[in-house]
Design a protein that fits this description.
Distance between the termini: 32 Å
Structural class: mainly beta
Shape: globular
Helix content: under 10%
Number of strands: 8
Radius of gyration: 15 Å
Number of helices: 0
Order of helices and strands: EEEEEEEE
Strand content: 35-45%
Largest sheet: 4 strands, antiparallel
Oligomer: single chain
Length: 111
């Protein structure tokens, strides 16, 4: 089917990835890819979920925080976000009460 991805800030190409030809190459600069809101991206309280992906950040890339995935309500902040911060992979989840949980783990250099 059609995924209706929207691209901002540059070009995106599909290429060989770890699992077939399903990788996105975002090129150089601040390229962002948006997927429209969909019910299957919303999981309820107490439901297990898995986010899986492979990223390759070019050597010499320095950013305080690089957002990988952001599914938060722009007004309430409710939702989830995955990011890399100072070389650590992180995940933040905020519920409807405003409670926020953040976890960080180290990402070995070159992996």
């Amino acid at each position: 089917g059609t995924n209706h991805l929207q691209v901002e800030g540059g070009a995106v190409a599909y290429g060989d990835g770890r699992v077939g030809n399903h990788s996105l190459s975002l090129g150089v600069g601040n390229v962002r890819v948006f997927a429209p809101d969909a019910a299957l991206l919303n999981f309820g309280a107490g439901q297990d979920f898995t986010l899986e992906g492979w990223i390759r950040i070019p050597v010499g890339t320095v950013r305080e925080r690089m957002t990988l995935l952001d599914k938060r309500d722009s007004l309430t902040g409710v939702g989830y976000m995955a990011f890399i911060e100072h070389g650590r992979l992180g995940m933040t989840v905020t519920d409807s009460s405003g409670a926020t949980f953040t976890a960080l783990s180290m990402v070995p250099s070159g992996n």
